[in-house]
Amino acid sequence: MRRTTTLMATAMAGVLALAGCAKDSGNGGNNNNAGAAGSCVTSTAPPVGAFGPSTSATGEKPDASAMRIGLSYDIGGRGDASFNDAAAAGVDKAKTDFGVKDVNESTAGPSEDEAAKEQRLTQQATNGYNPVIAVGFAYADAVKAVAAKFPNTKFAIVDDDSITLPNVTSLVFSEEQGSFLVGVAAAYKSKNCHVGFVGGVNTPLIQKFQAGFDQGAKAASNKIVIEDEYLTPAGDFSGFQDPAKGNVVANGEISKGADVIYHAAGASGKGVFEAAKSGNALAIGVDSDQYNQQTVAASKDVIITSMLKRVDVAVYDYIMALATNTLASLPKRFDLKVDGVGFATSGGKIDDIKPVLEGYQQEIIDGKITVATTPTAK
Protein backbone atom coordinates (compact mmCIF):
# COMPACT_ATOMS: atom_id res chain seq x y z
CA MET A 1 0.00 0.00 0.00
CA ARG A 2 1.46 3.30 -1.01
CA ARG A 3 1.26 6.30 1.27
CA THR A 4 -0.96 9.36 1.27
CA THR A 5 1.17 11.03 -1.39
CA THR A 6 -0.68 8.97 -4.01
CA LEU A 7 -3.96 10.63 -3.18
CA MET A 8 -2.28 13.99 -2.93
CA ALA A 9 -0.93 13.50 -6.43
CA THR A 10 -4.41 12.65 -7.67
CA ALA A 11 -5.86 15.72 -6.02
CA MET A 12 -3.08 17.92 -7.31
CA ALA A 13 -3.86 16.94 -10.88
CA GLY A 14 -6.82 19.29 -10.73
CA VAL A 15 -4.64 22.14 -9.52
CA LEU A 16 -1.70 21.73 -11.85
CA ALA A 17 -2.95 20.13 -14.96
CA LEU A 18 -6.49 18.84 -15.01
CA ALA A 19 -4.88 15.74 -16.47
CA GLY A 20 -7.31 13.16 -17.80
CA CYS A 21 -8.36 11.11 -20.74
CA ALA A 22 -9.97 13.83 -22.84
CA LYS A 23 -9.12 13.49 -26.50
CA ASP A 24 -7.68 16.39 -28.45
CA SER A 25 -9.87 17.19 -31.44
CA GLY A 26 -6.95 17.87 -33.77
CA ASN A 27 -3.36 16.93 -34.19
CA GLY A 28 -2.03 20.04 -35.88
CA GLY A 29 -0.69 18.00 -38.78
CA ASN A 30 1.74 16.08 -36.54
CA ASN A 31 2.11 12.35 -35.96
CA ASN A 32 0.56 12.59 -32.49
CA ASN A 33 -1.28 9.29 -32.74
CA ALA A 34 1.36 7.13 -34.35
CA GLY A 35 0.79 3.41 -33.91
CA ALA A 36 1.53 1.86 -30.55
CA ALA A 37 4.26 -0.31 -32.01
CA GLY A 38 5.78 1.49 -34.96
CA SER A 39 8.70 0.33 -37.05
CA CYS A 40 11.12 1.72 -34.47
CA VAL A 41 10.06 -0.53 -31.58
CA THR A 42 12.12 -3.71 -31.27
CA SER A 43 11.39 -4.80 -27.69
CA THR A 44 8.39 -6.63 -26.28
CA ALA A 45 6.68 -4.45 -23.70
CA PRO A 46 6.37 -5.88 -20.19
CA PRO A 47 2.87 -6.86 -19.04
CA VAL A 48 0.82 -4.40 -17.03
CA GLY A 49 1.15 -5.25 -13.34
CA ALA A 50 -1.01 -4.47 -10.37
CA PHE A 51 -0.09 -0.81 -10.39
CA GLY A 52 -2.96 1.39 -9.30
CA PRO A 53 -3.95 4.23 -6.97
CA SER A 54 -3.94 3.75 -3.26
CA THR A 55 -7.28 3.56 -1.51
CA SER A 56 -6.02 4.80 1.84
CA ALA A 57 -7.74 7.76 3.42
CA THR A 58 -6.05 11.11 3.71
CA GLY A 59 -7.54 11.98 7.10
CA GLU A 60 -8.60 15.41 8.28
CA LYS A 61 -6.92 18.46 6.85
CA PRO A 62 -5.02 20.47 9.45
CA ASP A 63 -5.59 24.11 10.28
CA ALA A 64 -2.46 26.00 9.18
CA SER A 65 -4.03 29.46 9.10
CA ALA A 66 -1.34 30.81 11.42
CA MET A 67 1.50 29.49 9.28
CA ARG A 68 3.51 32.10 7.36
CA ILE A 69 5.36 30.64 4.39
CA GLY A 70 8.40 32.09 2.64
CA LEU A 71 8.69 30.77 -0.92
CA SER A 72 11.92 31.54 -2.78
CA TYR A 73 11.75 30.57 -6.44
CA ASP A 74 14.55 29.59 -8.77
CA ILE A 75 15.05 31.75 -11.88
CA GLY A 76 11.89 32.03 -13.96
CA GLY A 77 9.66 32.18 -10.90
CA ARG A 78 5.92 31.75 -10.93
CA GLY A 79 4.75 31.55 -14.53
CA ASP A 80 7.59 29.41 -15.91
CA ALA A 81 5.07 26.66 -16.85
CA SER A 82 7.39 24.15 -15.25
CA PHE A 83 9.38 23.69 -12.06
CA ASN A 84 8.54 26.89 -10.19
CA ASP A 85 4.87 26.75 -11.16
CA ALA A 86 4.71 23.27 -9.65
CA ALA A 87 6.01 24.58 -6.32
CA ALA A 88 3.55 27.47 -6.50
CA ALA A 89 0.69 25.02 -7.10
CA GLY A 90 1.61 23.10 -3.95
CA VAL A 91 1.50 26.26 -1.85
CA ASP A 92 -1.71 27.43 -3.54
CA LYS A 93 -3.41 24.16 -2.65
CA ALA A 94 -2.17 24.48 0.93
CA LYS A 95 -3.86 27.87 1.04
CA THR A 96 -7.12 26.32 -0.06
CA ASP A 97 -6.97 23.16 2.04
CA PHE A 98 -5.20 24.29 5.19
CA GLY A 99 -6.19 27.95 5.41
CA VAL A 100 -2.69 29.35 4.89
CA LYS A 101 -3.06 33.12 4.43
CA ASP A 102 0.41 34.67 4.46
CA VAL A 103 2.88 33.65 1.74
CA ASN A 104 5.87 35.75 0.75
CA GLU A 105 7.19 34.98 -2.76
CA SER A 106 10.55 36.04 -4.16
CA THR A 107 12.41 35.03 -7.33
CA ALA A 108 16.09 34.56 -8.10
CA GLY A 109 17.74 36.42 -10.96
CA PRO A 110 19.61 34.56 -13.73
CA SER A 111 23.07 35.70 -12.67
CA GLU A 112 22.71 36.58 -9.01
CA ASP A 113 25.45 35.62 -6.56
CA GLU A 114 25.29 33.65 -3.32
CA ALA A 115 24.99 36.83 -1.28
CA ALA A 116 21.72 37.69 -3.02
CA LYS A 117 20.31 34.24 -2.32
CA GLU A 118 21.34 34.42 1.32
CA GLN A 119 19.82 37.88 1.63
CA ARG A 120 16.50 36.64 0.22
CA LEU A 121 16.27 33.73 2.64
CA THR A 122 17.52 35.81 5.56
CA GLN A 123 14.90 38.46 4.94
CA GLN A 124 12.11 35.90 4.94
CA ALA A 125 13.37 34.26 8.14
CA THR A 126 13.94 37.61 9.85
CA ASN A 127 10.40 38.67 8.99
CA GLY A 128 9.00 35.63 10.73
CA TYR A 129 8.24 33.35 7.80
CA ASN A 130 8.37 29.75 8.92
CA PRO A 131 8.84 27.57 6.98
CA VAL A 132 11.10 29.03 4.30
CA ILE A 133 11.00 26.91 1.13
CA ALA A 134 13.85 27.25 -1.39
CA VAL A 135 12.98 25.99 -4.87
CA GLY A 136 16.04 24.54 -6.56
CA PHE A 137 19.50 23.12 -5.88
CA ALA A 138 21.07 26.52 -6.61
CA TYR A 139 19.97 27.53 -3.10
CA ALA A 140 21.96 24.78 -1.36
CA ASP A 141 24.82 26.91 -0.05
CA ALA A 142 22.48 29.74 0.92
CA VAL A 143 20.09 27.44 2.80
CA LYS A 144 22.98 25.82 4.66
CA ALA A 145 24.32 29.21 5.75
CA VAL A 146 21.01 30.83 6.67
CA ALA A 147 19.42 27.81 8.36
CA ALA A 148 22.39 27.60 10.73
CA LYS A 149 21.70 31.19 11.82
CA PHE A 150 17.97 30.56 12.37
CA PRO A 151 17.76 27.21 14.20
CA ASN A 152 14.14 27.80 15.21
CA THR A 153 12.99 28.31 11.62
CA LYS A 154 12.12 25.34 9.44
CA PHE A 155 13.62 25.27 5.95
CA ALA A 156 12.95 23.03 2.97
CA ILE A 157 14.96 22.82 -0.23
CA VAL A 158 13.86 21.22 -3.47
CA ASP A 159 16.40 19.11 -5.40
CA ASP A 160 19.21 19.02 -2.87
CA ASP A 161 19.95 16.52 -0.10
CA SER A 162 23.41 17.65 0.92
CA ILE A 163 22.37 19.63 4.02
CA THR A 164 22.31 17.76 7.34
CA LEU A 165 21.05 20.51 9.65
CA PRO A 166 18.10 19.38 11.84
CA ASN A 167 15.88 22.26 10.70
CA VAL A 168 16.31 21.54 6.97
CA THR A 169 14.15 19.08 5.01
CA SER A 170 15.25 17.90 1.56
CA LEU A 171 12.58 17.36 -1.11
CA VAL A 172 14.27 15.25 -3.78
CA PHE A 173 12.98 13.12 -6.65
CA SER A 174 13.78 10.19 -8.90
CA GLU A 175 13.64 12.23 -12.10
CA GLU A 176 15.39 9.45 -13.99
CA GLN A 177 12.46 7.08 -13.43
CA GLY A 178 9.83 9.38 -14.92
CA SER A 179 12.22 10.28 -17.73
CA PHE A 180 12.66 6.58 -18.55
CA LEU A 181 8.91 6.30 -19.17
CA VAL A 182 8.75 9.29 -21.51
CA GLY A 183 11.82 7.91 -23.27
CA VAL A 184 9.80 4.78 -24.01
CA ALA A 185 6.95 6.99 -25.23
CA ALA A 186 9.32 8.88 -27.52
CA ALA A 187 10.52 5.66 -29.14
CA TYR A 188 6.97 4.46 -29.68
CA LYS A 189 5.86 7.75 -31.20
CA SER A 190 8.90 8.40 -33.39
CA LYS A 191 8.48 7.73 -37.11
CA ASN A 192 12.16 8.31 -37.82
CA CYS A 193 13.43 6.22 -34.88
CA HIS A 194 15.35 9.37 -33.99
CA VAL A 195 14.65 11.44 -30.86
CA GLY A 196 16.24 14.30 -28.95
CA PHE A 197 16.84 15.63 -25.45
CA VAL A 198 17.41 19.31 -24.61
CA GLY A 199 18.74 20.04 -21.12
CA GLY A 200 18.77 23.55 -19.68
CA VAL A 201 22.05 23.47 -17.75
CA ASN A 202 24.60 20.66 -17.79
CA THR A 203 24.46 19.68 -14.11
CA PRO A 204 24.22 16.30 -12.35
CA LEU A 205 20.51 16.95 -11.70
CA ILE A 206 19.60 17.56 -15.34
CA GLN A 207 21.82 14.68 -16.39
CA LYS A 208 19.41 12.44 -14.48
CA PHE A 209 16.64 13.47 -16.89
CA GLN A 210 18.87 12.67 -19.87
CA ALA A 211 20.03 9.35 -18.40
CA GLY A 212 16.51 8.11 -17.82
CA PHE A 213 15.21 9.32 -21.17
CA ASP A 214 18.05 7.72 -23.11
CA GLN A 215 17.70 4.43 -21.23
CA GLY A 216 13.93 4.31 -21.75
CA ALA A 217 14.19 4.99 -25.47
CA LYS A 218 16.86 2.29 -25.83
CA ALA A 219 14.77 -0.16 -23.78
CA ALA A 220 12.01 0.17 -26.37
CA SER A 221 14.27 0.08 -29.41
CA ASN A 222 17.79 -1.04 -30.18
CA LYS A 223 17.64 1.02 -33.39
CA ILE A 224 16.91 4.39 -31.77
CA VAL A 225 19.17 7.37 -32.49
CA ILE A 226 19.31 10.00 -29.74
CA GLU A 227 20.50 13.61 -29.84
CA ASP A 228 21.50 14.97 -26.39
CA GLU A 229 22.35 18.66 -25.98
CA TYR A 230 22.49 21.29 -23.22
CA LEU A 231 21.82 25.00 -23.54
CA THR A 232 24.48 26.17 -21.08
CA PRO A 233 27.34 24.59 -19.10
CA ALA A 234 27.29 24.09 -15.35
CA GLY A 235 27.32 27.41 -13.50
CA ASP A 236 25.44 29.33 -16.20
CA PHE A 237 21.82 29.08 -15.12
CA SER A 238 20.53 31.22 -17.97
CA GLY A 239 19.87 27.94 -19.75
CA PHE A 240 16.67 27.65 -17.75
CA GLN A 241 15.35 30.97 -19.03
CA ASP A 242 16.33 31.29 -22.68
CA PRO A 243 13.50 30.18 -25.02
CA ALA A 244 15.37 31.54 -28.04
CA LYS A 245 18.34 29.27 -27.38
CA GLY A 246 15.99 26.38 -26.68
CA ASN A 247 14.42 26.97 -30.08
CA VAL A 248 17.79 27.02 -31.86
CA VAL A 249 19.06 23.82 -30.21
CA ALA A 250 15.79 21.94 -30.75
CA ASN A 251 15.71 23.04 -34.39
CA GLY A 252 19.23 21.69 -34.76
CA GLU A 253 18.17 18.30 -33.44
CA ILE A 254 15.11 18.28 -35.71
CA SER A 255 17.30 19.11 -38.72
CA LYS A 256 19.37 16.01 -37.90
CA GLY A 257 16.24 13.86 -38.06
CA ALA A 258 14.85 13.85 -34.51
CA ASP A 259 11.05 13.94 -34.58
CA VAL A 260 10.31 13.73 -30.83
CA ILE A 261 12.09 16.18 -28.50
CA TYR A 262 12.09 15.97 -24.68
CA HIS A 263 13.21 19.02 -22.73
CA ALA A 264 14.33 19.55 -19.15
CA ALA A 265 15.05 23.23 -19.55
CA GLY A 266 12.57 25.18 -17.46
CA ALA A 267 11.18 28.26 -19.20
CA SER A 268 13.47 27.59 -22.17
CA GLY A 269 11.16 24.71 -23.02
CA LYS A 270 8.78 27.18 -24.65
CA GLY A 271 11.31 27.59 -27.44
CA VAL A 272 11.66 23.82 -27.75
CA PHE A 273 7.90 23.48 -28.20
CA GLU A 274 7.86 26.23 -30.80
CA ALA A 275 10.65 24.48 -32.72
CA ALA A 276 8.74 21.19 -32.64
CA LYS A 277 5.60 22.87 -33.91
CA SER A 278 7.34 24.64 -36.78
CA GLY A 279 9.43 21.56 -37.61
CA ASN A 280 6.52 19.10 -37.75
CA ALA A 281 7.92 17.20 -34.77
CA LEU A 282 6.49 16.14 -31.42
CA ALA A 283 7.51 17.32 -27.97
CA ILE A 284 7.56 16.07 -24.40
CA GLY A 285 7.24 18.50 -21.51
CA VAL A 286 8.67 18.35 -18.02
CA ASP A 287 7.82 18.91 -14.34
CA SER A 288 4.21 20.09 -14.82
CA ASP A 289 1.61 18.77 -17.27
CA GLN A 290 2.63 21.27 -19.93
CA TYR A 291 -0.19 20.36 -22.30
CA ASN A 292 -2.42 22.34 -19.94
CA GLN A 293 -0.07 25.26 -19.23
CA GLN A 294 -1.39 28.56 -20.60
CA THR A 295 2.05 30.03 -21.27
CA VAL A 296 2.75 27.33 -23.88
CA ALA A 297 -0.82 26.87 -25.11
CA ALA A 298 0.08 27.89 -28.66
CA SER A 299 2.17 24.72 -28.97
CA LYS A 300 -0.03 22.30 -27.04
CA ASP A 301 -0.96 20.28 -30.14
CA VAL A 302 2.59 18.92 -30.39
CA ILE A 303 2.97 18.04 -26.67
CA ILE A 304 2.26 14.31 -26.44
CA THR A 305 3.07 13.93 -22.73
CA SER A 306 5.11 15.48 -19.92
CA MET A 307 7.38 13.91 -17.34
CA LEU A 308 5.62 14.83 -14.12
CA LYS A 309 7.97 15.78 -11.33
CA ARG A 310 5.50 16.38 -8.55
CA VAL A 311 7.15 19.28 -6.78
CA ASP A 312 3.58 20.37 -6.04
CA VAL A 313 2.92 17.19 -4.08
CA ALA A 314 6.24 17.37 -2.21
CA VAL A 315 5.70 21.01 -1.19
CA TYR A 316 2.07 20.36 -0.23
CA ASP A 317 2.98 17.25 1.79
CA TYR A 318 5.80 19.13 3.50
CA ILE A 319 3.45 21.89 4.62
CA MET A 320 0.92 19.33 5.84
CA ALA A 321 3.62 17.41 7.71
CA LEU A 322 4.74 20.61 9.43
CA ALA A 323 1.16 21.43 10.39
CA THR A 324 0.66 17.93 11.86
CA ASN A 325 4.17 17.52 13.30
CA THR A 326 4.82 14.45 11.14
CA LEU A 327 7.91 15.45 9.17
CA ALA A 328 9.44 12.03 9.73
CA SER A 329 6.66 10.51 7.61
CA LEU A 330 7.83 12.20 4.41
CA PRO A 331 9.56 9.91 1.89
CA LYS A 332 13.30 10.26 1.62
CA ARG A 333 12.88 10.50 -2.15
CA PHE A 334 9.75 11.09 -4.21
CA ASP A 335 9.87 8.26 -6.75
CA LEU A 336 7.42 6.13 -8.74
CA LYS A 337 6.46 4.14 -5.64
CA VAL A 338 4.98 7.23 -3.99
CA ASP A 339 3.81 8.90 -7.22
CA GLY A 340 6.56 11.49 -6.90
CA VAL A 341 7.24 11.26 -10.62
CA GLY A 342 5.21 9.98 -13.55
CA PHE A 343 3.82 10.87 -16.96
CA ALA A 344 0.88 12.96 -18.15
CA THR A 345 -1.93 11.74 -20.39
CA SER A 346 -3.70 15.01 -21.17
CA GLY A 347 -4.78 15.35 -24.79
CA GLY A 348 -5.09 11.61 -25.33
CA LYS A 349 -1.95 11.47 -27.47
CA ILE A 350 -0.43 8.49 -25.67
CA ASP A 351 -3.63 6.64 -24.79
CA ASP A 352 -2.67 3.87 -27.21
CA ILE A 353 0.62 3.19 -25.41
CA LYS A 354 -0.47 3.88 -21.83
CA PRO A 355 -0.52 0.13 -20.99
CA VAL A 356 3.03 -0.13 -22.33
CA LEU A 357 4.22 2.69 -20.09
CA GLU A 358 2.40 1.24 -17.09
CA GLY A 359 4.12 -2.09 -17.70
CA TYR A 360 7.55 -0.48 -17.64
CA GLN A 361 6.47 1.60 -14.65
CA GLN A 362 5.62 -1.52 -12.68
CA GLU A 363 8.94 -3.14 -13.55
CA ILE A 364 10.76 -0.10 -12.15
CA ILE A 365 8.64 -0.15 -9.00
CA ASP A 366 9.27 -3.88 -8.57
CA GLY A 367 13.02 -3.40 -8.98
CA LYS A 368 13.21 -5.40 -12.21
CA ILE A 369 14.51 -2.30 -14.00
CA THR A 370 17.09 -0.04 -12.37
CA VAL A 371 17.28 3.35 -14.02
CA ALA A 372 20.66 5.04 -14.29
CA THR A 373 21.19 8.50 -12.82
CA THR A 374 24.13 9.42 -15.05
CA PRO A 375 24.19 9.30 -18.87
CA THR A 376 26.07 6.53 -20.63
CA ALA A 377 29.15 7.78 -22.44
CA LYS A 378 28.77 7.81 -26.20
From TrEMBL:
Residues 1-22 form the signal peptide. The keyword Secreted does not apply. Residues 74-366 form the ABC transporter substrate-binding protein PnrA-like domain. Gene3D superfamilies: 3.40.50.2300. It is found in: Cell membrane. It comes from the Bacteria. It holds the Pfam family Bmp. Belongs to the BMP lipoprotein family. PANTHER family: ABC TRANSPORTER GUANOSINE-BINDING PROTEIN NUPN, TRANSCRIPTIONAL ACTIVATOR PROTEIN MED. This is BMP family ABC transporter substrate-binding protein. It comes from Amycolatopsis taiwanensis. The lineage of its organism: Bacteria, Bacillati, Actinomycetota, Actinomycetes, Pseudonocardiales.
